[in-house]
Amino acid sequence: xxxxxxxxxxxxxxxxxxxxxxxxxxxxxxxxxxxxxxxxxxxxxxxxxxxxxxxxxxxxxxxxxxxxxxxxxxxxxxxxxxxxxxxxxxxxxxxxxxxxxxxxxxxxxxxxxxxxxxxxxxxxxxxxxxxxxxxxxxxxxxxxxxxxxxxxxxxxxxxxxxxxxxxxxxxxxxxxxxxxxxxxxxxxxxxxxxxxxxxxxxxxxxxxxxxxxxxxx
Length: 217
Prior knowledge:
Layout: E1 2-4, H1 10-17, E2 27-31, H2 48-59, E3 62-64, E4 87-92, E5 102-103, E6 116-117, E7 130-133, H3 139-153, H4 163-184, E8 186-189, H5 200-212
Parallel strand pairs: 1-2
Antiparallel strand pairs: 2-4, 3-4, 5-6, 7-8
Helix pairs in contact: 1-2, 3-4
């Protein structure tokens, strides 16, 4: 979540007084316009607005990130450059993968603010570059439906007296439908225009992570 809070701290007041329903928030960053000794040791004072900011961050299970290089984030437009630190980053609590950020004075250019950056690691994963598909309203779809219908009507269901016979019929039906699919589906390459490979297992895993908010999941 990117935040700009003016000198009146209007955004902080809004976030404090409004129930914001955002789950699994990974980062809050922006210009908070708050000077405080917590993040700038050269500034000797503490602001009550900092307490509000910390409470808001904690409500999202985030904590203040301290930069790897301690330099100002904003310079005043004057001959004497003041060491202002008002641009901050809050990251997910307890995270070992993302636990600090960088301030980049060399990338300031014409702005009076230094850019901030944080590296968020993405695990490598192997995604197939192809899939098997049957196009809607195609001849292959018509053949698949015909083969599936024959598979269903051709199964003997005269004796379903116990669970073992029901299981036997179910396995036979599954096998015939899979055969009908393999006989009619075409191998196609996955592109950004392809349909998603997302499935129910992905939904279950994602919901589990959102519930626990644990990187192990």
